[in-house]
Amino acid sequence: MPQKARNSVMQKLPGAEHWLAVSNSWWRQPEGPGSSLEARMDHPVIHISWNDADAYCNWKGKRLPTEAEWEFAARGGLKGKLFPWGNEEPDLSEGSIRKVNFWQGKFPTENTNLDGYITTAPVDAFAPNAYGLYNVIGNVWEWTADKYFNLKPDQHEQRILKGGSWIDSIDGSFNHRIRVYTRMGNTPDSGATNVGFRCAQDVQRDEL
Ligand SMILES: [Ca+2]
Ligand SMILES: [Ca+2]
Fold first, then answer.
1. How many A from CA of 194 to the centre of ligand 1?
2. pLDDT at 17 over 90
């Protein structure tokens, strides 16, 4: 984190001190003042709220996928499997198609970087699934159109995020366990360093 950004920390979360609210951190300066997109123009956009993602998709004549659409697409034609390639655990060795950007090591103090990416990876890193989609699981969480209903009575409306991210784990020993079914909710005005989105579009009948 750049020193300017360190000076801009507004808030820490008790019990989750690795989460810092950094003033003026947004998609074009993801780590706050002093950071930029230089050298990562091919990475997924981050710090995008559901409201922003929804507006962007609409502006492009598209929309956010529903959770069911997202998961159907992420499975790449497979049924009942844990990962986009099947049930085998990820394999980060050279030439493997079972790669995903997650966190190796002890979170949050040690990142052994076996997958080659300390934070986000380019949108086309690793092999795509059978539908040609890259990084559905891991890398960044992705907003969906659907509301999240597993809320406590005092919680505000939330939307569903899918797939886990670069701070999550494969074995579930910290943060979320990355699978194609992995989901969580967050409020539509929330953004973070590990949250992005992708747009969906209806297929015209004559394209089928
Ligand atoms: Ca990684
Ligand atoms: Ca993803």
1. 11
2. no
The answer to whether the beta carbons of residues 27 and 46 sit under 8 Å apart is yes
65 closest CA partner among 128, 142, 138: 142
The CA 149 to ligand 2 mean position distance, Å, reads: 22
Q: 102: CA distance to ligand 1 center in Å?
A: 4
SS3 207: helix
- Tell me the CA–centroid distance for residue 64 and ligand 2, in Å: 14
Å from CA of 23 to ligand 2 middle: 25
Rounded distance, CA 175 to CA 177, Å?
Answer: 7
Break the chain into its structural domains and give their ranges: 1-38, 42-201
Q: First CA to last CA across the chain, in angstroms?
A: 47
- Class at the top of the CATH hierarchy for domain 42-201: alpha beta
Residue range 37-85, pLDDT digits in tens? 999 999 999 999 999 999 999 999 999 999 999 999 999 999 999 999 9
